[in-house]
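Before going further, it is useful to explain how the protein records used in this thesis are read. An example of such a record is reproduced below.

***
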Amino acid sequence: MANRPELSVGEALVGLLESYGVDTIFGIPGVHNVEMYRALPRSNIKHILTRHEQGAGFMADGYARATGKPGVCFTITGPGLLNILTPMGQAWSDSSNMLVIASALDMADSAQGRGRLHEMIDQRAAAAAVTNLHMRAYTPKDVRDGLARAFANFASQRPRPAYLEIPLDMLKVAAGDGWHDRPLPRRALPQADQIAAVVARLNAAKRPIIILGGGALDCGNAALSIAEKLGAPVLTTTAGKGAIPEDHPLCMGYRMGRSHVVDFIRSADAILCAGSQLSETDFWQDDVVIEKNLIRIDIDADSLAQPHTAEIAIQADAKATLEAIAKGLSQHSGTGKSEIADSETDYLRNVITDTKQQDILKVLDVIRTTLPRETIVCSDMTQIAYVANEAFPVYEPRTWIHPVGFGTLGFALPAGIGAKFGKPQSPVAVLVGDYGLQYTLNELGTAAEHGLPIIILVWNNESLGAIHDNMVSFGIQPNAVSLKNPDFQMLARAYGAHAEKPESLKALRLAIQAALKADGPTLIEMTPRMVHG
């Protein structure tokens, strides 16, 4: 289909996306992008009609994080693009490959202030704030080149969103020849002298540690080989959870938000960090700077340069680099297991004094022990997820999906839907608060329409719980943090979903077990009272 010159640009676009391996597109057709939809019925691409462009973007992000493939969206001019900017910002912040293709006003009318439908002064400039690649097509060749650039970036650079806008009149013109996919570049490989320097440094270390970020999710075997040879403990960022199984004796999981763990990192004489920006939202402090003993591996030059000082900096593919390091290391007898045990004891001692977190830990324990090991969990910005980032064990890569950097409410439900479309054979659960759910509750209709057996675990404390606690800790009288919720049970059933409201932890376990076998989504409403029922 992509090589027929009589096709319009809008039709050829679909064929070319299919040639690049796109199997799913999330979006909403409108009067300004219907030409993108003309060829979809005769393609092998599945289009998912969402209830809002924000839902489409979060679904594409969830799809990308669960599969490792780019998530693709179609949207319209003006409000369609603005609605999807929030998910694009989340994907940019959390290093997720997303391609957003939008229509734009006719070339002759763009930004002329003539009162055209959906008119914006500079649509591409809006997208530029949350993308690494932002393009406008003026000719059919620009569309072909734009897709080639986007997929070349996805294959070789730090994952981040790309944006392509196509004017309405351009979508209708004859496509011409040349609509075929192009060979894609690969990520850079490390140099032999760099590997030798890292191996020498690690072999000489007495107290090495390893930090794995979201860029190391596919590096688990190599990272474990290094850890086991060195006897080194492994920390992950939130985005890196699951890179290695969190029940491995050398895995500390995510603990970097704890001050004693920051001290532990600084005490190491070699810190091997792969695929992490080591940002404020990894430490939850804005003044943590590591100035010595740091070895960094990252595909992104900017991450290697700031804010920490790397004594050895390697801009290359993390998997290939860690595999090369593992081959060169000798066997050591490290103290990682005892250090992990000490850290875990300290962590539990800190948590146990907090009654709220103690209750949440009991709920998380039921969820974790009931869900299959391979379940993909998409979480939201909510109190229960903040505890889960540290306390919920994850065993496989790409099975813990959390909106870390941009910190967007409403992420979890549509991200879980996108993950399920990307990995239909994997169980998918959503962990969301009562307030955040209402940002994107409409996408429950998308899940129900497609009969997706997603488990939606809603923590209903009838408040913005984390903000309430922040106000108290800052000496502010809590205000504007309580809300009157709808009847979530009735709402779920109105959409055609199943609904449960367990009154005890035992009932929660039974509800999750039933939801795993359901023929569509199940909303399970959890409350703090349930813990003591």
Notes: The two ends are 60 Å apart (CA to CA). Residues 140-156 form the longest helix (17 residues). The chain has three domains: 9-172, 192-341, 354-532. DSSP finds 21 helices and 18 strands in the chain.
